Amino acid sequence: MRASLIQIDVNPDESPNSRRQRVASLVREQSAADLVVLPELWPVGAFAFETFADEAEPLEGPTYEAMAKAASDAGVWLHAGSIVERDPDGPLYNTSLVFSPDGELARTYRKIHRFGFDRGEAVLMAAGEELVTVRLPETTLGVATCYDLRFPELFRGLTDAGAEMLVIPAGWPERRRAHWSLLARARAVENQAYVLACGTAGTHAGVEQAGHSVVVDPWGEVLAEAGSGEEVLTVDLDPTRPAATREEFPALKDRLLGLGTPRR
């Protein structure tokens, strides 16, 4: 199974519409991949809070249309990163879109953990409530977004739901890049799953982005890592590896907490 992570430079001098078309072209170039992953909030920038309300779009808005067509043209499963979604009832959500190779919307995920400590995303957006997995022909994806990476219980829930590959689009800041790398490997090791973590490059809203998208195997080994600029990171994955790892080192079977009353 081949996965391509497209680490996009979110340049504030490029309009969201221009970026949509450019990114759609990049997706079409990945026709040799099975799965393509984009970053968080790449149409507007994850820290461009002041633009969220103006750039919010309905679920089936311009990003949906461009990415559905790109997925279909390339014939790939596409995790199209996330958008600022305006719900018909009013709230904004940080919503991920996953498309099948025929361009149909397979699942959406509204980000549960919003970043900002009572500012920014944390107050401008509503929280999602549902853990989301997506069944592909060869594996099951568990879907999370950026700040979710700091909450291991979310990933354990995805693993319990059958996830073998954890996909994490992000707009992670450079000043906390060490945490990004550490937490991506930790989530892989503790869940014995692949982690595909796709971030943004460049600087937007004055916040330098970490880049360094990374693919980690179920043993915590880094299989591929991007640099700091715009880049396509492509890696071939063995979809049987998580199950084999869990059989070889069955740590998940020894869980006590979260499964009822611990044995004495």
Count of distinct strands: 14
Number of helices: 7
Overall, the morphology is: globular
CATH superfamily: Carbon-nitrogen hydrolase
The main β sheet shows up as: 6 strands, mixed
Average pLDDT across residues? 96
Structural class: alpha/beta
Proportion of residues in β-strands: 25-35%
Helix content: 25-40%
Radius of gyration: 17 Å
Sequence of secondary-structure elements: EHEHHEEEHEEHEHEEEEEEH
Can you tell me the CATH topology? Answer: Nitrilase/N-carbamoyl-D-aminoacid amidohydrolase
Ends distance? 43 Å
Low-confidence stretches: none
Number of domains: 1
- Which CATH class? Alpha Beta
Placed side by side, the strands forming the largest sheet appear as: 5-4-3-2-1-14
Task: Describe the protein's topology.
Elements: E1 2-7, H1 16-28, E2 35-37, H2 52-55, H3 62-74, E3 77-86, E4 92-99, E5 105-110, H4 121-124, E6 132-135, E7 140-143, H5 152-160, E8 165-169, H6 177-191, E9 194-198, E10 203-204, E11 207-208, E12 214-216, E13 222-225, E14 231-236, H7 241-248
Parallel strand pairs: 1-2, 2-3, 7-8, 8-9
Antiparallel strand pairs: 1-14, 3-4, 4-5, 6-7, 9-12, 10-11, 12-13
Helix pairs in contact: 1-3
